[in-house]
Amino acid sequence: MNAPVLFEEKTAANGVRFGIATLNSPQTLNGLSLEMVDLLASQLDAWAHDPGVALVVLQGAGDKAFCAGGDLHGLYRNMSENAGKPGWNNAYARRFFEHEYRLDYRIHTYPKPVLCWGHGIVMGGGIGLMMGASHRVVSESSRLAMPEVTIGLFPDVGGSWLLNRMPGRIGLFLALTGAQLGTSDAFFAGLADFRLDHADWPKLLASLEEQPWAGQAAGGAEDAIPPRSINDGLLRRALTALEPKTPLAPGHLRQHSFLINSLCNGNRLDDIYEELAALKDHEDPWLARAAQTMLAGSPGSVRLAFALQQRLRLRSLDDVFRAEYIAALACTAHGDFAEGIRALLIDKDKKPRWNPAVIDMATDAWVQKFFDEPWPEGEPHPLDDLGKEGR
Predict the structure, then answer these.
(1) Which of 307, 295, 305, 310 shows the shortest CA–CA distance to 358?
(2) Which domains are present in the chain?
(3) Stated pTM of the model
């Protein structure tokens, strides 16, 4: 059986190395399991402390996806076993979300350049891995989204932080509708830094072996770690040299950004929901599909995603991860998460029975339980130390 994550190191001409981590589950579109999270976290930590490694590359096996999301089947099994019990009782979910969020935060704060190849499908947990990378690269076939509304979750993995930092109100629109973005809109939304044709990816990897990376080769002094900015610049130069010359046409999100900002403006979810719902028959199929996805999705997820963005708008990234951890655990016990997975992946009837069934029943009072700390009184938050290193 192949390892779920493959690791290799390449050595440049000057003896400095770079690491390549490959998510190796193409049959599940490289869906992120707890084992994969732990393997990545361990290896990233080793590379971070290795003065002979200049940078890290993240990629997915196969041609279809970098990473299409998290381990929904594993979470479903454990939610079924924990049915009727508090989310805190679900040991697997506690570990999964804590370890995943720690990994995502580690990438955001990684001390070396991280190049993420966001080719093909990048959704959910894949967004969490990619968004913290310093050099985020998309291809002509990239499709990015946070479609958690369709499975009764919410845009987690730091999504409440990320979406709040997009232009205008487009982050809220993406959270409520799960709308998919192509290459052009990935740049407009601030989800990508570079683009590369899929056929040129091997050329890029080969060019990395030719760069004069700044770092300590074998046998050097352990404290001879050079400024990171040198390697950031070299990586940017390598990517820019292969960037396609053809300009990108504006995508659907950019074309409709004025309308989206207008409809999503305001502080009342009920009004925003009604305005977006009216787009279900829009002449642009992309807008119509976005509205239809929201209407078919979990009303509770819509309310929770909205509440998270409102409450966490000015919070730091580590604070956002702590709040999302509480909300995610609550989703395993109180929300529509298990039902959404059942309808989409288990029974595949695509007929989820949402509870609450309509947006009017998903009130401000109803959503409060997703913010209540679930652990015994006096215990620290499992992510309490996040962001406090070196303080």
Answers:
(1) 295
(2) 5-370 (3.90.226.10)
(3) 0.95
